[in-house]
Amino acid sequence: MNGTLPDQVHLTDGALEAVDMTLQLAEAIESGGPWGQAFEAPSFDGVFGISDMRVVGEKHLKFRLITDVGTLDAIAFNADVDRWMIDRPAAVRCVYRPSVNEYRGERKLQLQLDTIWPAQSQ
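Predicted structure:
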């Protein structure tokens, strides 16, 4: 090698339309497993505006993302929270998986952000 890092490649199943991001889709993906090595869970990519961003559990970022049809909850586990809270971009490009967030007996759609980058605003 010549001392440069290789380009990072993220394979996804493409982008989802905002109207297709539903709790029912997240439940179908979760029940479609088991997922694992050589049989990865479906993942998608997109660019979203950020309505709200906060730190939860010291090293996770909770987002309220802006879509064409409203806002969605999202979470990025083990994120570089210091960098994100200082830079606070207006938009994020991400690779994500629709997931079910169960909290206090309520089930809601939440995007689990596997990889995130600051992006230009939509």
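Summary: The chain has a mean pLDDT of 89.
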